[in-house]
Task: inverse folding
C-alpha cells in the first residue's frame, strides 16, 4: 500500500471504532477487534484497499445507526456497495425447505454477490468467527460449524481459495468433534518427526535419480491438514 491507501485504511478504522463504540463480542473484547481481524485476513490475501476498507466497515449497517449514504459520502460508492453487499448476504431469507438446502444457498450467495469481493469479505468474516467460537454455547458453536461446512467451505472450494477452505475444515472438525480432533492432532504431531525424515529421504533419492537422468524438475510435497486425514480414516 502507498501512504494514501494506508491513511484511508486508518480513517476506516477510526470510523468503525466510533460506530461500534461500546459494543463487545461474546469474549468481552471490543467489537472493533473483529472487523480489524477480518481486514488483516484480506490484507494477507493481497486484496485491494477498497476491500480492506469495506471489511473494517462490514458490520456498521447491521449493528449501528450508520447509513449507506454516510459510508458513500465518507469512502465512496465502491466501498458503500461492498458493505451493503455483505449486509444483504447476512439477511437472506428463504421461503421453503427446498430453498434452504445448502446447495441452493451457495448458489444464491454467489448470484447475489455480483462483485466477488463481497464473497471474499464474507469468507474472511466467517473464518474469523470460526477462529473465535470459544466463548459461545456448545450448541451455537456446532450450529455455526455445521453451517460453515454446508455452505462456506463449498464456496471457498468453488472459488479455489484453498487456504481458507482448509483452515475452515480444521476449525469445523474441532468444533463438531472436539475429542476426535484432539486425539488425531496428538497422533499426527507424534508421528511428524518420523514422517519428515522419511519424506526428506525420498526427496533426496528422487532428486539424485532425476540428476542422473538429466531431467530438470522440482519436487514439491504438501502436508495434509487434519480434516483431510480424518476423512480418509
Result:
Amino acid at each position: 500500500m502507498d501512504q494514501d491507501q494506508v491513511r484511508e485504511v486508518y480513517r476506516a478504522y477510526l470510523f468503525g471504532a466510533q460506530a461500534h463504540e461500546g459494543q463487545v463480542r461474546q469474549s468481552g473484547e471490543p467489537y472493533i477487534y473483529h472487523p480489524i481481524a477480518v481486514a488483516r485476513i484480506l490484507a494477507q490475501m493481497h486484496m485491494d484497499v477498497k476491500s480492506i476498507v469495506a471489511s473494517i466497515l462490514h458490520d456498521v449497517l447491521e449493528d449501528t445507526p450508520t447509513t449507506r449514504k454516510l459510508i458513500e459520502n465518507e469512502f465512496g460508492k465502491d466501498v458503500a456497495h461492498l458493505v451493503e453487499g455483505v449486509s444483504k448476504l447476512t439477511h437472506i431469507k428463504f421461503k421453503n425447505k427446498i430453498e434452504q438446502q445448502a446447495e441452493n444457498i451457495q448458489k444464491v450467495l454467489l448470484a447475489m454477490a455480483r462483485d466477488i469481493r463481497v464473497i471474499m469479505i464474507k469468507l474472511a468474516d466467517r473464518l474469523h468467527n470460526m477462529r473465535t467460537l470459544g466463548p459461545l454455547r456448545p450448541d451455537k458453536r456446532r450450529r455455526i460449524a455445521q453451517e460453515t461446512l454446508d455452505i462456506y467451505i463449498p464456496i471457498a472450494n468453488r472459488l479455489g481459495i484453498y487456504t481458507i477452505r482448509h483452515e475452515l475444515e480444521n476449525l469445523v472438525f474441532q468444533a463438531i468433534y472436539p475429542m476426535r480432533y484432539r486425539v488425531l492432532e496428538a497422533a499426527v504431531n507424534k508421528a511428524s518427526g518420523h514422517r519428515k525424515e522419511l519424506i526428506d529421504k525420498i526427496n533426496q533419492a528422487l532428486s539424485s535419480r532425476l540428476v542422473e537422468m538429466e531431467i530438470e524438475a522440482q519436487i514439491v510435497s504438501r502436508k495434509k491438514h487434519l480434516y483431510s486425514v480424518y476423512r480418509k480414516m
Remarks:
- The chain is about 75% helix and 0% strand.
- The chain has two domains: 3-176, 193-231.
- The chain has a mean pLDDT of 87.
- The longest helix spans residues 178-212.
